[in-house]
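User: Write out your own:

AI:
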Amino acid sequence: MEKDIVNIGKSVVIKGELNGSEDLTIEGHVEGTIQLKEHVLTIGPNGRIKAQVFAKSVIVLGEVQGNVTASDKVDIRDNGSVDGDIVAPRVAIAEGAHFRGSVDMQRKAGAAQPQAAKPAQAAAPQPAAAAPAAPQRVGA
């Protein structure tokens, strides 16, 4: 059986905190907080969200007012609208989409940033002899 996908219909209004462990499509109205940390949230063309959103991926076809944080990707499609800040490693905004806010596309801090910082720190205290050798060992 494939992944479960839950739908919230056009006439449904939710106020409060929405948590889940399944992919979710919202066509109705949600106000508050939405948390789907390991799953995909799709805001359908009729969806109207006034919430802080936390998900693996967020696809916006409707309207979002609030900050969106995704561990994988935020995708604002043709008629989608986001008024708020986006934090995600990958962001796609289609032509015809509306976006007002800031975008933070920092990669996950686990691998790239500490490795880049350690060789720079090692090269600084050892000025002449060891500095050229350290980058050669790292690159090889």
Q: What stands out?
A: The two ends are 46 Å apart (CA to CA). Confidence is low (pLDDT under 50) at residues 109-140. Helices lie at 112-123, 130-139. The longest helix spans residues 112-123.
